[in-house]
Amino acid sequence: MTDLRIHRHPILKYVRGNPLKFYFEGEERTGYENETIGAALYATGLKEFSHSFKLDRPRGIFCAIGQCASCRMRVNGVPNVRTCITPLEEGMTVERQFGAGEKPTNTEVRKTFKKELEADIAIVGGGPAGLSAAIYAAKFGARVVLVDRFPKLGGQLIKQTHKFFGSRKHDAGVRGIDIAERLIKQVEENPNIMVLSEAEAFGYYEPATIAVAGKDTIYRINAKKIIMATGAAEKALLFENNDLPGVYGAGAAQTLMNTYGVKPGDEIIMVGAGNVGVIVTYQLLQAGVKVKMIVEAMPKIGAYFVHAAKVRRMGVPILTRHSILRAYGENQVEGATIVQLDDNWQPIPGTEKDVEVDGIAISVGLRPTYGLLDQAGVKIQFVPELGGHVALRNRNLETSVKNIYVAGDIAGIEEASTAIMEGRIAGLSAVIDMGLAGDDAKELRESVRAELTELRAGPFGARIRQGLEKVEVL
Amino acid sequence: MAENGEKIVCRCMDVTVDDIMKAIEDGYTDIESIKRVTGLGRGPCQGKTCIPIAIGIIARATKKHPDEVGYITPRPPVKPVFFELLADEEGESE
Fold first, then answer.
1. Which residue does chain B place closest to A210, by CA atoms?
2. For the segment A410-463, what is each residue's pLDDT rounded down to a tens digit?
3. Closest Cα of chain B to A202: distance in Å?
4. Which of A110, A240, A328 sits opposite B7 (nearest CB)?
C-alpha cells in the first residue's frame, strides 16, 4: 500500500504513537496515534474523500484545519465528520460521503454534558495571539478561559519550521515551532488559565457569552471581556476543476507534512510566489516532495529575496506572469495546465502547457475570520491591505462592541511576531479596562506597542500601516 | 467527470461562476441576495473560501466597491456541531 509518511526530516522528529488499525470502506489500513483520520487516509494514498451534493464532483482535503468542511466523511456510521481535525481511533470505520450523507446508522446516544463557566476573560483561539493574550492577562491575576479547536495548542505556529526574521528581541533566528512550545508551556503552567482543547467556539450571545462545543460537553462561558483571536482561512482561486482532490491550500500541505509527517503528494506545483508559497515550497523540498515549479501571476516575486533565491538554487523554477488555467485528472489531480499572462492579466493563447503533478498547492493569501465578531454586532469593514473583512477598533484593540477585543490575523493578516504583540496588547487592555491592573500594566502596554511599531516599520510594513489607518479609528 | 471544467466558487453548495453570473444578469447585485438565490455560503463552512471570490466576481461585474457588495453573517453554529451535544435527554434541562 502507498506510504506517504515522512520517515526522515532535517528539522522535525515526528512523534508517532502506537499503530492503529482502521477500515476504509471495508479495507484495513494502518494509521498512528496523533494522526487525524484525514492525515492517515492521505498517508495511505487516498485523496478522494467525498462527492459533492449537487454536481456529484469528487472532493478531498482543502484547508486541513477544520475551516472549509471539504473533508467530511462518514465515520463509524455517522455522516459529516470533519476528518481533517478528528483524531484517528483504533477500529474506526471510514467511508466516502455522497452529498449531505445518509442519516446515521449508529444511533447510540453518547452521554453528553452541559457546563457553565465564569471567567474574567474568554479568549477564542490558541494561536500566537490567543496564547500571548492569555499569558499577559493572567500575569495580572485575571481568570482566563482559553478555547482552542485543536488537540495541541499553538495554532498555525506549530508547523512553522523556518526561522523568523527581524531583530533578536523579536525572536529572529528562532523557529516558529520553538516559539510555540515556549508559549504553550507558559500557558499550561499558569494556574489562572483554563484551557479547553478540541473545543469549537460556535456562537456569541449577549451580553458576553461564548458557546463552545467540546468533545462531550457544551460549555457556556460567561465572561467580562472577550478576546477574539480566531485567525484566518486560506483563500481559494478560480480555475477549471479547482475543487479536484489534490488541489489544496499551501497551508494544508504544510499541516499534512509538518504536523502529521505526511507528504501531500510526490510531485506538486505551487501557485503563488508570496512568502507563504515560497517558504512552503522550501519545506516541501525538505520533506522530500518534488516541487516542479512555482507560478506567479504578478510580474515579480512577492516573497523575501533570500527565500526565493534559496528555492531557485534548489532547482525550482519560479515563473512570473504565469497562472494556472485548469487542473485535470480522473477523480484526483493528475496534472495542471499553466499559461502565460499578458500585461492585462489575460492568458496568452498558444502558451498553455501541461505539467504532470499529483498535487496543486494554492498560496494566494489568507483572509481574516470574522464570523463571531459579526454575530456580536462589531463594526466590520473590507480592507484589502489587511486581507479582507476586519473589525474597526481603538489603539487598545477594543472593537465597536464594548468588552470585545481582537488580536492576530483576525485583526488583519500579518506575521506570527505581530500576532504575539497584538495578543499582549489585547490581554493587557482587558485587565486594565477591568480595573485589575494599573500603571505598571499601562507602562508594559506602551513598551509592547513600541515594539509592534518597530516590527511594522520599513517598506514591508507600508501596506499594513495603510490598512491600519482605515481601521484604528475608534 | 472532471472534464467539464467547472469553476467552483462555493464548494459546500456547488455554486459555479456561471451560477453567480446568471444571478447578476437576473438583477441581483449584492452578496446577501446572491446568497439567497444561488445558495452561496449556505453550507456547513458558511463562506470560508467562497465569499472573497464571490465579492471579486460581483464587484467586477457590477463595478461596485467591495464594501458595497457586502458580506454575509455566519449564523450559530459557525462550525458544525453534533446534535448529540445540543440535545437534552427527554425531560431533562439545565
1. B76
2. 999 999 999 999 999 999 999 999 999 999 999 999 999 999 999 999 888 999
3. 5
4. A240
Which positions in chain B touch A114 (Cβ < 8 Å)? 88, 94
State whether ipTM is beyond 0.85: yes
Q: CA A251 → CA A221, A333, A444, B29, distances in Å?
A: 31, 18, 34, 32
CATH number of A19-98: 3.10.20.440
Topology of the domain comprising B2-86:
Arc Repressor Mutant, subunit A (1.10.10)
* pLDDT band per the 50, 70, 90 thresholds, residue B79: confident
Q: Is residue B24 less than 8 Å (CB to CB) from chain A?
A: no
Nearest CA in chain B to A82: B80
Query: How crowded is the C-beta side of B75, counted as CA atoms within 13 Å?
Result: 4
pTM for the whole structure: 0.95
| Most A CBs within 10 Å, among B79, B88, B92, to test the A interface | B79
Instruction: Tally the residues of chain A.
Output: 474
- Nearest residue to A349 (alpha-carbon basis) of A339, A363, A357: A339
Query: Please, what is the Cα angle at A348 between A341 and B7, to 5 degrees?
Result: 75
Could you tell me the fold of the domain covering A247-365? Answer: FAD/NAD(P)-binding domain (3.50.50)
